[in-house]
Amino acid sequence: MASLESQIDGRWQLAVRAAAEAGRITLKYFQQGNYQVSRKVDGSPVTEADRESERLLRAIIESEFPNDGIVGEEFTSREGQSGFRWILDPIDGTKSFVSGVPLYGTLVGVQYEERSVVGVIEMPALDERVHGATGQGAWHIRGNHAAQRCQVTNCEKLVDGLVLTSEIEGWSQRRSVECLIELQRAGWFMRTWGDCYGYLLVVTGRALAMVDPIMNIWDAAAVQPILEEAGGIFTDWEGLARSDGGDGIGTNHSVHQELLEILGRVTKQM
Predict the structure, then answer these.
(1) Domains in the chain, please, with CATH?
(2) Rounded to an integer, what distance in angstroms lies between the CA atom of residue 29 and that of residue 216?
(3) Given its phi and psi angles, is residue 174 left (phi above 0), alpha (psi -120 to 50 degrees) or beta?
(4) With 90 as the cut, is the pLDDT of residue 1 above it?
(5) What is the pTM of this model?
(6) Residue 224 and residue 121 in contact, taking contact as beta carbons nearer than 8 Å
(7) CA angle 9, 10, 11 (to 5 degrees)
(8) Cα–Cα distance, 103 to 126 (Å, whole number)
(9) 132 - beta bridge partners?
(10) Is 72 helix (H, G, I), strand (E, B) or coil?
(11) Which residues lie across from 86 on neighbouring strands?
């Protein structure tokens, strides 16, 4: 029987390839105006690009690893028997996608016994990606250039770096807009270059922190192992290293506690 390391490695290689193929599907629709935008029950948008790219991801995974579980944003989950589970978000940042903004991505994560061990963030419209696996490092690739090892920034205080978040509405839903304002004041400056692109900026050392007040597992599962392999940390707002906590923090170890102290004022009020 193959070692766990080799099993993870095989899934890592497939995840990188599958994310790239699914990302190319999104480019058939991006900025083309050849699709309709529907609204899901929660009001979030969905398009045929989301569905077609997730169908492709599932087909690739099922052909190579038929005993693995699959959880995706757009279709029903599939139970597995191998201990491995794939977590898919075919278009993370659909609002950006439908607005013609290139800051959307395809996320592919792999968990083993509910622990995220592989992650891919593919940015199709930017031709940029980061990926990593537990114990194997995190890697950044632009176009056809050689992969470069990822490393989070070494800033020691929030005031020294760029802080990111996604849309402000999530903070409003958590009744935490005042906390967002405090976070903005604590950092050097803040931008809403959000969704998975924000985490890519943290992984590559261009941003210090990315904070999301509302996250689903398919938003977070791919992010966690990449950040950890880049020398950073991904937790929920309680400080737990998990991808199913409903919110998220991606940063380096130096400012993580500073972030938790600010965000803790929100969790205590809920």
Answers:
(1) 4-149 (3.30.540.10), 158-267 (3.40.190.80)
(2) 24
(3) alpha
(4) no
(5) 0.95
(6) no
(7) 90
(8) 8
(9) 119, 138
(10) strand
(11) 70, 110
